[in-house]
## 1
Amino acid sequence: MSSFWERFKTLRKERGYTQEKAADIFGTTKSSISRYEKNINIPKTPKLERIAEHFNVSIDYLLGKSKIRRKDPNWFEKLPPDLQELALEHNIDYLEVALEAKDKGWTPEAIREAMNLIEKYSPNNDNTG
């Protein structure tokens, strides 16, 4: 998965911002932006929140912890019906795994079986073992 510096640089370039322009927007220096993009520094939480809000992405996405750019309030309605069903059956935390599997061409049956196995062997499940 991508890391902060890759995501930040991509988002900056998508907007057509120079490092100087990004520095002005985020109240920092061009040198700080350069250090972010060279993976030398990561901004502290308040600045991360500001960056995420400006680019309309989640902090998890910005940090490379999620492939989902933002939490859409209508996300459930936008899911294909087979993934809506999975989302209702399983812990919502596993939904990103299901979406990635679907993107890789997995059948709904294979995704369902994978979700069942994840749930069965989850450390929070008392039925393991």
## 2
Amino acid sequence: MRYERPFKRTDRVANEIQHILGEIQTQYIDLSDLGFITISHVKISPDLKSVKVFFSVLKRKKPIEKIQLAMNNKAKAFRKYLGMELRMKYTPELKFYYDDTVAYTQKLDSIFHDLHSDD
């Protein structure tokens, strides 16, 4: 009988990478000039060699395009620290993308609040 794990290896590695990137952000790389950045989601390719990192920004200090460019410019530093923590044969390439779900949720909340206050 074959033992089934609760989720795939890619999911487990993505969760670990998200956790490590959060620690790197607070300990080694200063992102305070961009705003309050949180790593919201990580997707990893099936071969475990490339990662899409989705981030959200609260209290942003620059436009989103410049923040995303700055994050991608710091990807090499993130990868360096990630390689020290992650126990894998290859350290995956990182690409950062803005996750607009927080802004979308806030917009929906304000619409619902306006509808509720009109009644």
## 3
Amino acid sequence: MSDESGNPSTASGGKSKSAKEPKEKKPRNVDGLKAANEKRRAALAEKKAEVAAKKEADLRAEYEKQYETLKNQIGTARVMPYKISSRFEVANAIQHAKFGLGFVTSASGDRIEVAFVEGVKPLVHNRG
């Protein structure tokens, strides 16, 4: 038995079991998706900030340890005021107007590297 289109029909006259009706799509909860995405971004940003803060704290602790070691080795008996025109050598203790007490760790030409409590800073010297 077949219907007018030539397709075989079932005995009950209904649709065949193999032909499925398309499912009705549910509307997406766009606001919910946006909120979840925003929450994930906030959590990621918070995690990145925590990691950066930990790295900074570890680096600061390392600088402080290096500074204290140099302070004990070099001492503070002969601290020279920092001036661009002065010449400094490795193991000199200097007093900088902005950075405070520091210790020369490297010197070459007109550049020096000085270890301060907040980190190593490049400075110029021997000019003038």
## 4
Amino acid sequence: MPQDLPAGPKSTTAKYWRKPLDADTVKVPHGEIHIVVNRCKGCLFCVEYCPREVLEISEDFNVKGYHFPEVSKDDACVNCGLCEMLCPEFAIFCVLDEEEGGGEG
């Protein structure tokens, strides 16, 4: 495989054909995931469709008797919001983590 091809979707490093012009100034957002465990009905849409594979199935049960999702890779979340859009029970939501931006003073 040639060295200058882009990395696959499961790769942790990416090689580009050319460097984006704003690569030094773009900051990747970071999200904090909150799960309302007792509202979850165990459909696991959030686990299956997470593009960064941040969530996994818990071995524990909630009060309804379902396995609920739990965060496995918290630092990989980019606050895309796909998990909260797909959840039919509104049991999961993301909050943009402002701490990574640093303070003004």
